[in-house]
Amino acid sequence: MRSRRRIVGMVLVFTAALGVVARAAPLGTGFTYQGQLKQGGVPVPGPTCDFEFSLWNAPVGGNRLGIAQTLIDQDVTNGLFTVTLNEGGQFGQQNAFNGEARWLEIQVACPTGMPLVPLGRQEITPGPYALFAANGAGGGGDITEVIAGSGLSGGGASGSVTLSIPTGGVTSAHILDGTVATADLAANAVTSAKIVDGTVALADLADNAVNSAKLASDSLSLNKVSGGRMTASGGNIEIGSGDQLTGNLILKAAVDDPGDIIFKTSLNAQKGRIWTDYPLNKLHFSTSDNIADLTIDPTGNVGIGTPTPGKKLTLSTAAINDGLAIEGANSRNVALYTNLGLHSFNDITALNDRGIIYSGDAVNAPDGGFVIAPWATGPSGLRLDTNGNVGIGTNQPIARA
């Protein structure tokens, strides 16, 4: 069963569009009636409704003049409709408008096919009486008063009168969607002060419609670009959401894994990446691909070449003569190797040896010896000089052993 919907708040926009005309062109009995239907203060969308009109001689009770006029399937746009009444003399040929007060009773069914709902009676303003005056009755047909209808100001009963639309009289509810185009607006007529905050959404903007020339200096903040997902405050730039610290770049996400920082060229080639691996909470660094070159775990262990460092500093390599080197001034180097090659750096090394190699800026020029000793005031420890002499407890060894 279709539900019955009551339509309330009909506003009369024009009651008649008739005036005194030359008698060489006789007037008919019809007149134009325009109105607006609202339900709960909102215009009825239509698209079509049924109407029934009847003419009465009293606001309540009284007698009906003529017969009711029924109009089916009438167009309704934003609540507005226009109909022609009494065109066939439904309200009476002679006494419909004879100078006495008249009321129009209206019933409406929206949409078409629904039961008719009475809207009550509405007094007819003098417009239709132009028909009566045009026949020579009622005192010569002069206009005695101009009354401003709904949404208009002005009018009067004497002299030159005007009708105007007051400031603010035309609201968005009076304008159909899409009826105001760019060509209808003067340059700079629409300013930010005339746009309510939040009323222009992304869907309202055409692609590439907003360029840098249309934005005032400093008018666009990070918050406005990202919809609140990127903010700047107190020296911070924060991506995501949450509490801000001071002087930090904060990357946050809606899930526990906050995402990656990826470095790419203009040709989209990846040149670096920093990421975490939730829930292990390790921080990884890579120079190009997605394999970690350096990893820091939650305990502070640092791994080079391994994502699972077991010590405070762990270096993992399977290459020959690859290891950890400490370089000083004048090319003084000390290197720790876990996989030496045969005769690498020195003829005493064998394949797969582990070793500590120290060197200078050239072969056979280490510029000093190699010492393993405690921090002490006396000569204690082991010293290896550049000739291969080994001394224990002396800084001047004189023999190989």
Structural notes for this entry:
The protein is mostly beta strands and 401 residues long. Among the domains are: 8-155, Sandwich (Immunoglobulin-like), CATH 2.60.40; 222-252, no CATH class; 253-315, no CATH class; 369-401, no CATH class. Helix content is 2%, strand content 31%. It contains 2 helices and 26 strands. The protein has helices spanning 130-134, 222-226, and strands at residues 8-14, 31-39, 42-43, 48-56, 64-75, 80-85, 103-109, 117-123, 146-147, 153-156, 163-164, 230-233, 236-239, 249-251, 261-264, 270-276, 283-286, 294-296, 302-304, 313-315, 323-327, 333-337, 355-359, 370-372, 382-384, 390-392. The strands form 7 sheets. It has a 6-stranded mixed sheet, with no helix packed on it. The longest helix is centred in the first third of the chain and has 5 residues, at 130-134. It is rod-shaped, with a radius of gyration of 47 Å.
Give the SSE layout:
Layout lengths: L7 E7 L16 E9 L2 E2 L4 E9 L7 E12 L4 E6 L17 E7 L7 E7 L6 H5 L11 E2 L5 E4 L6 E2 L57 H5 L3 E4 L2 E4 L9 E3 L9 E4 L5 E7 L6 E4 L7 E3 L5 E3 L8 E3 L7 E5 L5 E5 L17 E5 L10 E3 L9 E3 L5 E3 L9
Parallel strand pairs: 13-14, 19-20
Antiparallel strand pairs: 1-2, 2-3, 2-6, 4-5, 4-7, 7-8, 9-10, 10-11, 12-13, 15-16, 16-17, 17-18, 18-19, 21-22, 22-23, 24-25, 25-26
